[in-house]
Every structure is written in C-alpha cells, then in structure tokens.
Amino acid sequence: MLLPIKQNVQVTFNYQVAFTNGLFHPENSLLKDTLCPSPGSKAKLLCIVDEGLIQHNPELLFDIEDYFNSQDNLHSVRSPLLVPGGEAVKNDNKHINEIQRLVHEYGIDRHSFILAIGGGAVIDMVGYAAAVAHRGVRLIRIPTSVLSQNDSAVGVKNGINAYGKKNFLGTFAPPYAVLNDFDFLTTLSDRDWGSGMSEAVKVALLKDPDFFDFLEESADKLRNRDMPAMQNLIYRCAELHLDHIANGGDPFEAGTSRPLDFGHWSAHKLEQLSDYEIRHGEAVAVGLALDVTYAYFTGLVQKKDWVRILDVLRHLGFSLFVPELALGLDEAGKKPAILEGLNEFREHLGGQLTIMLIEGIGKGFETHEMDEYRILQSIRMLREYETSTTISK
Prior knowledge:
The structure is a single chain. By secondary structure, this protein is α/β, with parallel strands linked by helices. It has helices at residues 30-35, 51-56, 60-69, 94-105, 120-132, 146-150, 190-195, 197-207, 209-217, 219-223, 227-247, 264-273, 280-297, 303-315, 340-349, 372-392, and strands spanning 16-20, 43-50, 74-76, 81-83, 113-118, 138-143, 157-162, 165-172, 177-181, 355-358, 364-367. The strands form 3 sheets. Strands 1, 2, 3, 4, 5, 6 and 9 form a 7-stranded parallel β-sheet that branches. The longest helix has 21 residues, at 227-247. The model has no long low-confidence stretch (mean pLDDT 92).
C-alpha cells in the first residue's frame, strides 16, 4: 500500500503601498521605479482607467500618455481603456472579456503589467481579470477614492458580482504594488470623499482605540475635506489592514472567519437591496451602527460607548438608518429581507457563521450566532435613534 505524500508549501508575497502626489508628473519617478526596479529593465503594460475620473479630470488621459511616452523603458501597448466606474462595472462580464481580449491581442504576459486606475469597484474588476489571465498578470493598483486608498485596494482580494450576490466570483491575488496619489482625492464629490471613512471607523473599533480617538477629534476636519487629516486617516487605516493581512494568520480567508468585515454582513445585503444605489462605504456605516446597537442591546457595549460611536458616524456625515434596513420589518408573517444577509455571509465564507462584533472600542471578537429577534429589535432601536437625533438637530 502506498502512503500519502504530504507536502507543506509556503509562499511569500511582498508588495508595497506607497503614497505620493502627482504620480503622472514627468518628474515623479515612483511609477517608473516600481515598474522597472533595476537599471536597464523595461516594462510592458496595459492601462485601464475609471471613466468617472475623466469627467472630473479631463487632462488625465493626456498626462498618462505623456508620462509613458517620456519614459524609454516603459511601453504602454495602447491608449488607456476606459471602463465605467461604480458598482455597475462589477455586474457585467463584458468588461472582464474586453480586458482579457486585450491581454491576448497585445501579448500581455505574466511579466507584463496591468495598471488599474480608479475607485474600488474598478480595481476589484480589473484585479479579477488580471488574476485569471495567464493565471496571474502582475497588477499595479492606483486607487483614486478614499475607500480604495484606505481599504479595498491595499488588500489581497479581487471580485465581481454574480447571481445577485456581491463578490460571488473572485480571487485572492496580492497586487504587485499599490500607489496612492492623494491628488486624486481633490476631485471627489463630497459623497465619495465621505463614504470611505466608514472603513476607518471599522478598523479603529476593532483594533485601535487611539485611532478612534483621532477620528472623533478630527471628525469636523475630515468632513470638511481637510487633506492632512484625511492623509493621516488613510495611512493609519491602510497600515492596520496590511498588518492584519500579514499577521492575522489567515490572509486568504481559508477558515470561516473574516475579521475585517465587521458591519459587512448587513452592508453587502443593503447594497444589493438598493440595487447598489447605496455606496459601499455608506452601507458599511449603517452596518456598523446596526452591529454596535446589537452589541449594546445584548450587553456587550456600554451605553456611553454606543452613543459615542453613533455620534462619530453622524459627525462624519453618515446616515445611521436607510429604508432598506427595515424592508418587511413591520409586516406580520414576513421575514425582513436584511436577515438573508446572515446566510449569504455564512455561505460566502463556507461552513460556520462567523460574525465580528465588539465588546468595547478597540476590542473585537468573533461570535458564531446572532439572535434574529435581537437583530430586529436593534433595527427598531437604531431607527428610533436616527429619527430622534435628526429631529433634535
């Protein structure tokens, strides 16, 4: 009888998250040095751009092409491909197919690069296309929103939506590098500027009470577009996310836990229920408010911390309640739609339901069950809180 052959394969990934201004300015060498780290090396690349950027920065395409034309060792195979921004780009496979067609047509191989320039949804989609072409083309992420610079683009996940479920198709594939250009943030709408801050609140509540203090003290500055405050937020948030990926013990989520997705079980469902009219960051803020209220309702969080957390979210400009959260809540015999999010969250991970909650600011912990009655009571409590604080203002 032949014995099984057992093998332990260890793989190390190295990538940098860099910060700059004017990435495509001819005198800025960060991109060139990233693509060509050794003297005499050359790089072949395909560039994908979020078309929403061009509406606010019509010179961007010229800046990108001028940059590559000025660098002898960088070969862009064609003009940048424009794709729609926002969650809709993750709902249509034609964008994946177009990118992969160009990879084939221009001979983009595993030693070439795909540059994804845009918000988190575009980077998710392009990352998925890159990860499955040739089993992995090197990806440079150039995130242009608060949410993507502080959270989604610094991680190792890529994905698209399918069957009405967020990120149903996807890969774990670390980028070659992430290049954050703060200048892109100056063109964001107030809504997009603000929506990404919920992920910072999330990671502060899980891991860093001092960071939460900063968010509380700087809430007015952040809401009013103070750039130094936002740079600090993005840097610390990205730092905490990268530390968790590197040192959390499960970077590719092989287990049943997703520790950095506090508030996300309902957030993902809210996005779907609103047909993605609710931004991801906005949905996360509501999800955080709901789970913090649940933690308060079940005695895990003291009232003073519950109020403090909700006040920080409100001062950052977030609504704590949206109508989609209560769909079916007051209809006898009907199960509220939001509860479907629990099973979809469990299914996405596989195996046992694992939800991240807190038992104090900076003190995250995992639970494997949530009481549906208490969830519904928490929704009612949150709705009442939102209504009363809105009226009082």
